[in-house]
Structure of L-methionine gamma-lyase:
Amino acid sequence: MKNNNNKLLNQETLCIHAGKAKGDHKGALTTPLYQTSTFVFDSAEQGAARFAGEEEGYIYTRLGNPTTRELELKVAALEKMEDAAATATGMAAVSGAVLSFVEAGDHVIVSHAIYGCSFALFSHQFKKFGIDVTFVDMANKEALTAALKPNTKLLFAETPINPNLVVLDLQMIGDFCQQHNILSVVDNTFLSPILQTPVDFGIDIIIHSATKFLNGHGDVVAGIIVSSKENIAVIKSTILKDIGGTISPHDAWLILRGLKTLSIRMERHCKSAQTVAEYLHQHPMVKEVFYPGLPSHQGHKYLNNQMRGAGGVIGFELNGDVNTGRKFINSMNLFSLAVSLGDAESLIQHPASMTHSPYTQEERLAAGISDGLIRVSIGLEHTDDIIADLAQAFAHIENVTGKA
Ligand SMILES: *Cc1c(COP(=O)(O)O)cnc(C)c1O
């Protein structure tokens, strides 16, 4: 399959075929795993030409690998962008995308509600290197405009926001960044390119924790940065090469395998999460459900324009205190008590004490993450079984607390 035909193909087909190097790999149907650290040159001249960039070809796996390359081209095609750089973790994608374009003295604007370690990176690590960071509520255009400084270089956001699923207006953010000549970076982990392609709204750089939906099988930590050829060339020839957060070819190979089923997995995640969200919404022991598929949720108006689906993650609050939540989580049977999301297994976790513990309580409350919030990632099990597990946990806390 030639890459220049990608735009003619649908995403379901791209998941399976995009990025495959035609004619390579001795005719193998699937992408072989090039588990090699280095590549042998035919001659001293060839080695020199590759280092000088005068000849295409592989040098050393930190700089590039044929298995990794197919992953990069596949995700780039799915995001409708030119190129990509795969990384060792999602956090290597966040740090790589930002550090490649920002230096001491620059200012960046960051959504006040983001993944916990992204928050820690921006609020604690970058400070050490003289990068000025302003956190704002990006649902508020005035707050965004007020954060602007003459040295603002980059904006970083994620949508839907983890874990309360607040949806940001990507068109507004894309327009704002273009108007002020700011590089925009969006974390698209929660929806995957099947449900949202931020480039449609003028976003410059998209990052993913490939650990989550892209791989989908809970056996890899990895990330990817997607952008123009020019931006990816900068990332690969500077921060990724010299700081070294390159993906392992074995992990790239596992993600390529996972990606073949991405579109059908996302379809099922959305359908099941909708059923579960509706169940939780009507339950008397639930105070509030955060899921864009529910008409009561702030993000619902973005469905079918910005987002092609509401995704597989639901936040909800129980009536009761932190102990009620703990008892609930501890009585799950089918759900695994684990952070991460986007796996075949349904997962449950408590953001305030787990994924969002890098925030102080004050910062967390300002970002809309209450102490009682529970986050579930709805897996690929039958929804009857998922709901039965939730129902027995509700029955358990009802027995303990004696109230519905
Ligand atoms: C998990 C996650 C990350 C970090 O990815 P790792 O692969 O764990 O390094 C970043 N952003 C979001 C939204 C995530 O869910």
